[in-house]
C-alpha cells in the first residue's frame, strides 16, 4: 500500500516535470517566433532625409502617386507603404514603408524615432545650392552617420544629389569631396568638444583617427547618385531601394 503510494507520487512528479518542460519549451518557441517576426517586419523602413527644400516630399509623392503634386513645407512626416514602380512596371512585389522626415532644424531629430526600424536611408541634397549650404548639410549628415545604431547596423545610405536639371547643379563627383572636407572639419571640432564633455560613448567616431575623413572609411555602404526628381530622373533611387530591400536579412 505504502509502496504504491510512493510510486504514485513519483509518477506524479515525473509527469509534472515533463509538463513544466513542455510549457517552458512552448513559451521559448513562442518568444523566438514573435521576435523573428517583429524583427523582420520592423527593419524594412526607408527614410528620406535631407535639408528643407532638397526635394524630399516631391520624391515621396512621386514614389507614391507617380505624378506631380504640389508639395509644401510640412511640419509632420509623411509615411506610407509604397509599391515602387518604374513606368507603371512594379520593381518589387511587396509595398515598402517609406518615411519623408521634415528637414527643418527643429523637426529633423524625429528621424531618430525611426532608426530602430530602418533598412536604408536616402539623404537628399540640392546640388544647386550645396556649396552655399555645405555647413548645415554636413552637420545633418554628421548627425546621421555618427548615430550609434546607424553605424552598428551598417545601414546603407544613398546620397542623392537632386536638382541635376539646374545649370548651377554640381555633379556627385564634385559634391563628395566638398562634403568630406566639411565633415572632416566638423569631426575635429566635435571630437574635441566630446572629449571635454566625456560624451564619446553616445556617438560613433567617423572614419579613421589618423586620416582625413572619406566616406569609404565608414562601415556603412555609402553611395552617391545624381537625380532630378522634378524631371522624373530618379530611377537609380528606386533601384537602390529595391536592391537593399530585397537583400535584407
Ligand atoms: N529644379 C528642380 N526642382 C526640384 C527638384 N526636386 C524638387 N524640386 C523643387 O524643390 C522645392 C522643394 O521641394 P520639396 O519636395 O517640398 O522639398 P522638401 O522640403 O525637401 O520636402 C519644390 O519647389 C520642388 O518643386 C528637381 O529635381 N529639380
Ligand atoms: Mg517636405
UniProtKB/TrEMBL annotation:
Entry annotated with the keyword Oxidoreductase: no
Which biological process, per GO, is one annotated for this protein? Golgi to plasma membrane protein transport
Q: Write down the Gene3D superfamilies for this protein, in alphabetical order.
A: P-loop containing nucleotide triphosphate hydrolases
Q: How does it sit in the membrane?
A: Single-pass membrane protein
The transmembrane residues are 17-37
Q: What GO terms fall under cellular component here? A: endoplasmic reticulum membrane; Golgi apparatus
Tell me one GO molecular function of this protein: GTPase activity
Q: Where is the signal peptide?
A: none
Q: Which family does it belong to?
A: Belongs to the SRP receptor beta subunit family.
Protein's recorded name: Signal recognition particle receptor subunit beta
Give the originating organism: Diversispora epigaea
Amino acid at each position: 500500500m505504502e509502496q504504491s503510494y510512493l510510486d504514485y507520487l513519483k509518477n506524479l512528479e515525473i509527469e509534472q516535470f515533463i509538463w513544466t518542460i513542455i510549457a517552458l519549451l512552448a513559451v521559448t518557441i513562442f518568444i523566438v517566433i514573435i521576435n523573428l517576426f517583429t524583427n523582420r517586419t520592423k527593419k524594412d523602413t526607408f527614410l528620406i532625409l535631407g535639408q528643407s527644400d532638397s526635394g524630399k516630399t516631391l520624391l515621396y509623392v512621386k514614389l507614391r502617386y507617380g505624378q506631380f503634386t504640389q508639395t509644401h513645407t510640412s511640419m509632420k512626416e509623411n509615411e506610407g507603404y509604397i509599391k515602387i514602380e518604374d513606368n507603371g512596371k512594379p520593381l518589387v512585389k511587396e509595398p515598402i514603408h517609406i518615411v519623408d522626415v521634415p528637414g527643418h532644424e527643429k523637426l529633423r531629430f524625429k528621424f531618430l524615432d525611426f532608426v530602430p526600424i530602418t533598412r536604408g536611408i536616402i539623404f537628399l541634397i540640392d546640388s544647386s545650392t550645396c556649396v552655399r549650404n555645405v555647413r548645415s548639410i554636413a552637420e545633418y549628415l554628421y548627425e546621421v552617420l555618427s548615430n550609434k545604431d546607424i553605424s552598428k547596423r551598417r545601414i546603407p545610405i544613398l546620397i542623392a544629389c537632386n536638382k541635376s536639371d539646374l545649370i548651377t547643379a554640381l555633379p556627385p563627383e564634385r559634391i563628395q569631396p566638398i562634403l568630406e572636407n566639411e565633415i572632416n572639419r566638423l569631426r575635429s571640432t566635435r571630437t574635441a568638444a566630446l572629449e571635454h564633455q566625456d560624451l564619446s560613448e553616445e556617438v560613433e567616431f567617423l572614419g579613421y583617427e589618423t586620416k582625413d575623413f572619406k566616406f569609404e572609411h565608414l562601415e556603412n555602404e555609402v553611395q552617391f547618385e545624381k537625380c532630378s526628381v522634378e524631371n522624373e530622373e530618379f530611377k537609380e533611387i528606386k533601384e537602390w531601394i529595391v536592391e537593399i530591400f530585397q537583400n535584407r536579412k
